[in-house]
Specification:
Radius of gyration: 20 Å
CATH class: Mainly Alpha
Helix content: 55-70%
Structural class: mainly alpha
CATH topology: Methane Monooxygenase Hydroxylase, Chain G, domain 1
Bound molecules: protoporphyrin IX containing FE
Number of strands: 0
Largest sheet: none
Order of helices and strands: HHHHHHHHHHHH
Shape: globular
């Protein structure tokens, strides 16, 4: 067998049969397909972002500025890709959105345990979210574990205070700032999207809707990186 035929085929490497079987791309209504698949795609990217943030924390704790930059560099691009999903969803007509909303019941991205994990891992920890309606026991256990873990914010604080090479520390800060800035843009785009479809109506999770998301848009996951290293 030569090296080419021994290589696993594309579909097997990516487990495409399983992935596309469970992907919400089979519904008759293509607007529903767009909405559901966009959310599934976002959840995959949230998982990738979590992995990178864990690596960023490890690099900071190792005092390795170059590795911090390397691990952090994909993060703003991931956030921009996530923001692009909102641009796609903004192409839904108001009628299509209303139809989807009627089918959603009280399901909402508010119940995305992975998004809350990203916030908790970074250091943005509000214990009230642990009791989010719709979280499973497994979601709660994961978030409780994140709550007890060292945060990226604490790792950055210790790194920035101690790193002997101030220029290298500043490069690491800028890489993390690019992530937090892109996350802030994601939040703001989300609020605009919700305002477009909901106006002043409440969200499916029962929050104030766009008003809640606009307030959330002021959150910064890593507040300390917004100040230059001295
Ligand atoms: C037309 C599309 C969308 C609309 C109108 C919308 C609207 C909302 C609203 C109103 C909330 C506040 C909670 C509530 O009462 O429901 C919310 C929360 C949330 N949504 Fe969306 N959303 C949309 C798409 C998405 C997508 C594609 C994602 C990606 C997974 C997402 C993730 C989230 C997250 C993570 C929260 C919690 C945010 C926080 O607490 O800071 N949403 N959304």
């Amino acid at each position: 067998m030569n090296a080419v035929t021994a290589a696993p085929p594309y579909g097997r490497v990516l487990r495409l049969d399983e992935l596309l079987e469970i992907a919400r791309v089979h519904e008759d209504d293509v607007d529903h397909v767009l909405f559901m698949a966009a959310h599934q795609s976002c959840e995959i990217l949230f998982a990738v972002a979590l992995r990178h943030l864990e690596e960023v924390r490890a690099a900071l704790d190792a005092g390795d500025a170059d590795l911090t930059v390397r691990r952090a560099t994909p993060l703003p691009r991931l956030m921009s890709t996530l923001t692009g999903h909102f641009d796609v969803l903004a192409t839904l007509t108001p009628a299509a959105f209303e139809d989807i909303r009627a089918a959603l019941g009280d399901a909402s991205g508010f119940q995305s345990a992975q998004w809350r994990e990203i916030e908790f891992l970074c250091g943005l920890r509000d214990a009230r979210y642990l009791s989010t309606a719709g979280f499973t026991a497994r979601d709660r256990a994961r978030l409780e574990a994140r709550m007890a873990e060292r945060s990226v914010a604490d790792a950055y604080h210790d790194f920035a205070a101690a790193h002997p090479d101030r220029a290298a520390a500043e490069r690491a800060r800028l890489a993390l700032l690019a992530f937090d800035e892109a996350a802030a843009v994601w939040r703001a785009r989300h609020a605009v999207l919700a305002e477009r479809f909901l106006g002043t109506a409440v969200g499916t999770a029962g929050s104030e809707g766009a008003g809640y998301l606009w307030r959330a848009a002021l959150r910064r996951a890593l507040p300390e990186v917004w100040t230059p290293v001295s």
